[in-house]
Design goal:
elongated, 85% helix, 0% strand
Length: 118
């Protein structure tokens, strides 16, 4: 990964690499948030849970928004570590019968967030 980033930085310049990483963070955060909302809404519509689990699932993403907006490197590193929790959650959801697609999508979105935030 480091070699790929170094090749990209020399080919396109460090500013272009940083811009692509920021786009990746915003895109993967948005995709992960949408997946969390849709997954929680499906569980709520089936009568399994109330709306509070949706809020709890979105809270870590919302808490890191100021760090992403202000471009703080330490906040991005912590966001990468938090995205590991979403990867694990996606893997657990993929084990539930009938939820394989949701689990794989969440895992891929969280993995994209981890790579772009790191």
């Amino acid at each position: 990964m480091r070699q790929w980033l170094d090749r990209m930085a020399t080919r396109h310049g460090l500013d272009q690499a940083a811009l692509l990483a920021r786009r990746g963070v915003w895109g993967s955060m948005g995709a992960l948030a949408v997946l969390q909302i849709l997954g929680g809404w499906q569980m709520h519509a089936s009568g399994q849970v109330a709306l509070m689990p949706i809020v709890v699932r979105l809270l870590p993403l919302v808490l890191f928004l100021p760090s992403v907006v202000t471009k703080r490197p330490r906040g991005h590193v912590m966001l990468a570590f938090v995205s590991l929790l979403y990867i694990l959650q996606g893997l657990m959801i993929a084990q539930v019968p009938g939820r394989l697609v949701w689990g794989v999508l969440e895992t891929l979105a969280a993995l994209a967030l981890f790579v772009s935030a790191a």
